[in-house]
Amino acid sequence: MQTFLGRELPGFSSYHTEIAVAGNGTNLTNIPVESAPPLEVLLKEIEESEKKPVSEPNPNNKQEFPTTPGENGVFVYHSHSWEAFIPFLSGVNNPDEAVSINEDKNIIAVGKRLQEELIKRGIGTSQSKANVTEELKKKNWNYNHSYDLSRGLVQEALATEKSINYLIDIHRDSQPKEITTTMINGKPFARLFFVVGKENKNYEENLHLAKELHQKLEEKYPGISRGVFVKGKDEGNGVYNQDLTNKSMLLEFGGVENNMEELNRSIEAFAEVFGEYYWKAEEVSGNPA
């Protein structure tokens, strides 16, 4: 059915994503949508930011990873750091223009909040705040090299912090609010979901991790997860840096129209569920998770 639709319906070729586990209401008509950023908007924003004075410049121009005391078991990063949310942006109504290099307005803000919530639960977590757009521009690379760029960030983090086991690449979806939001106990939550690349040696283990976390999320917060999606090289990157550890996640929080209140609820919910999973894994192994 999926192959037929992809072949016969105009515009349906983008919907080749495999649904490994369907969350409530998830089907082929509302699966995740990834749109290439309007680079002219981003580059204009970069040009404007370059006109402003920069405080506390980093003379070594090295990527800094904010860390927590002790060992860090989790590394949070963003292959598409420009992904932003319309409610954070002034004068933006077009979802295709919901992009920003301001880390208080783009997906980096979600990663920062997740880092804070994991630290509260005793899980050492570091985060990359790399401006991927700017770094791509420096290398004269286009959007298709996003995961090549983030791969370097991940490899640097793994080399620097030997204790890192879990990799979480955080994104947001381009679907509208009615698809990316759910009510739980009378409050709106931004829904989340997992993407697993099947073109790497850790596919089965990473798929198992995503399925377990999806199930645990649904047990505590029914409807919060849109499910687990699998992509091969014909449907996307197919690897997503998930060959680097067997505890890798590409995790999408909400969509382009979600606000921070909705996102915060989901960040806290995920941190709670992941925290329980993390510490149980440590107890079972007798070593840091």
UniProtKB/TrEMBL annotation:
SUPFAM superfamilies: Zn-dependent exopeptidases (SSF53187). Residues 48-70 are annotated as: Disordered. Pfam families: SpoIIP (PF07454). Residues 57-70 have a biased composition (Polar residues). This is Stage II sporulation protein P. It comes from Niallia hominis.
